[in-house]
From TrEMBL:
<comment type="subunit">
    <text>Homodimer.</text>
</comment>
<keyword id="KW-0808">Transferase</keyword>
<protein>
    <recommendedName>
        <fullName>Adenine phosphoribosyltransferase</fullName>
        <ecNumber>2.4.2.7</ecNumber>
    </recommendedName>
</protein>
<keyword id="KW-0328">Glycosyltransferase</keyword>
<dbReference type="InterPro" id="IPR005764">
    <property type="entry name" value="Ade_phspho_trans"/>
</dbReference>
<dbReference type="Pfam" id="PF00156">
    <property type="entry name" value="Pribosyltran"/>
</dbReference>
<comment type="similarity">
    <text>Belongs to the purine/pyrimidine phosphoribosyltransferase family.</text>
</comment>
<dbReference type="InterPro" id="IPR000836">
    <property type="entry name" value="PRTase_dom"/>
</dbReference>
<comment type="pathway">
    <text>Purine metabolism; AMP biosynthesis via salvage pathway; AMP from adenine: step 1/1.</text>
</comment>
<dbReference type="InterPro" id="IPR029057">
    <property type="entry name" value="PRTase-like"/>
</dbReference>
<dbReference type="GO" id="GO:0005737">
    <property type="term" value="C:cytoplasm"/>
</dbReference>
<feature type="domain" description="Phosphoribosyltransferase">
    <location>
        <begin position="48"/>
        <end position="161"/>
    </location>
</feature>
<comment type="function">
    <text>Catalyzes a salvage reaction resulting in the formation of AMP, that is energically less costly than de novo synthesis.</text>
</comment>
<keyword id="KW-0963">Cytoplasm</keyword>
<dbReference type="GO" id="GO:0006166">
    <property type="term" value="P:purine ribonucleoside salvage"/>
</dbReference>
<dbReference type="GO" id="GO:0003999">
    <property type="term" value="F:adenine phosphoribosyltransferase activity"/>
</dbReference>
<dbReference type="GO" id="GO:0016208">
    <property type="term" value="F:AMP binding"/>
</dbReference>
């Protein structure tokens, strides 16, 4: 994707502020921390504009933004409020009231369960899914399954950071866009 000069400056600012923490959460991992970048208010504004400009250009008819537990919530609410469309959370098991649809997904060390309120997406609604990070793709795949079970149409998954070395993109059957890519894990 080619960015205009203003968005390229925003992206460069965001990249420059991503924190790195060696050996977290375990030895041998260099953790890329988006929250370090968000300590700077200019980065918050830049990230908002990057995401909104991308979505306005590529998904002008989107009707619902789905954010993944928990960092995806930050982006989904911001996007939805700016576009004046719905915002729907996908949460870990037991965190949502009412009737929910569930999907179990694989983690490095076991499994987890994501839930979506059954009546939160209408059949045929155009949906984008947002999160901070694409690693192995398990959580985004589960969210995609949930949206489909609800009758929604996933247009794209959008993330800020992608760890390309983990090949998460190959586990997804929808388009994926990442603003920043890292080759290492």
């Amino acid at each position: 994707m080619t960015f205009d000069s203003a968005d390229q400056e925003r992206l460069d600012l965001l990249k420059s502020k991503i924190g790195e923490y060696p050996n977290f959460p375990r030895d041998g991992i260099l953790f890329k921390d988006i929250f370090t970048a968000f300590r700077d208010g200019k980065v918050c504004v830049a990230t908002k504009h990057l995401m909104l400009n991308y979505i306005r250009k590529n998904h002008p008819s989107v009707e619902v933004v789905v954010g993944l537990d928990a960092r995806g919530f930050l982006f989904s609410f911001m996007i939805a409020s700016e576009l004046e469309i719905g915002c729907v959370p996908v949460r870990k098991k037991g965190k949502l009231p009412g009737e929910t649809t569930k999907v179990e997904y694989a983690l490095e060390y076991g499994t987890d369960v994501f839930e979506l309120q059954t009546d939160s997406i209408k059949a045929g609604q155009k949906v984008i899914i947002v999160d901070d990070l694409l690693a192995t793709g398990g959580s985004l795949k589960a969210a995609t399954e949930l949206v489909r079970k609800a009758g929604g149409v996933v247009q794209e998954c959008i993330v800020v950071l992608e760890l390309q070395g983990l090949n998460g993109r190959k586990n997804l059957d929808v388009p994926v866009f990442s603003f920043i890519q890292y080759d290492d894990e």
